[in-house]
Amino acid sequence: MEKKFKRLVLKTFGLKRITSLLYFGTRAFVGANCDSDYDFMLILDKYNPTDIFKLRKVCQSTQFKDLDLNVNFLYLSDIKARGFRNFQLRSLRIDFYKYLENAIVLVGRNIFKKNSLKMSRRKLIDLMDFKIQEHYGRCDKMFLQNLKDEILYKNIKKYIKGIIRFILIREDVMTFSDITKYSFNDIFDLAADSKIFTPSTSAKFTSLSKDYSGKKSLEVLDSVRRSVYETYLNLYSNNS
Questions:
Q1: Are 18 and 41 in contact (CB under 8 A)?
Q2: The Cα angle at residue 211 between residues 207 and 216, in degrees rounded to 5
Q3: Average pLDDT of 49-55?
Q4: Domain residues for 12?
Q5: What is the model's pLDDT at position 239?
Q6: Could you give the number of structural domains in the chain?
Q7: 146 with 103, same domain?
């Protein structure tokens, strides 16, 4: 699918205007996964009033209609005006930047890898603390929304996997760049080997590879979420 998207973007904007077309996220880093959407970052040279409408047409193409397509869009001139160290896309900042440093290049070059940001250990921990709490709270919010159980299950599972990954980065078991190397099964093995999680919590990770099979599976999934979060709270208390 990423090849189809690349071809259509190239046809729409032309090679000269595309600074970067990057492919990132779980599907790009750890392989096809039905729980994950397709994440792209398109960076064009400079503002043109027709660009957003052209890109909208690309995203609404019938060949992508049944896919979870997540396209991010910026201009190189705007990024440079703020400076790479002040990069921001919506509410996404340093953590998103670090993902982009490891993104797969479909067209152009990876400007984020070329301008890699350095982060202190304290800054990294603070960032992971924020992301873990944000993911956990987002799950609470989704439980209280009018979502079909199957959709809720898929999303909660995705955020639990994210929390586990953030905990491992926080505890220096893996790095941002490791995201491109490890499948989620590898990450679960890392988590078990690290002894960060209790054996009973690690044993629950098998639930994260299962599909929705009824309301009981949703209850099981939330028990995994709580166990993972309690592990984090103990780590947070000890660090504090």
A1: no
A2: 70
A3: 96
A4: 2-114
A5: 76
A6: 2
A7: no
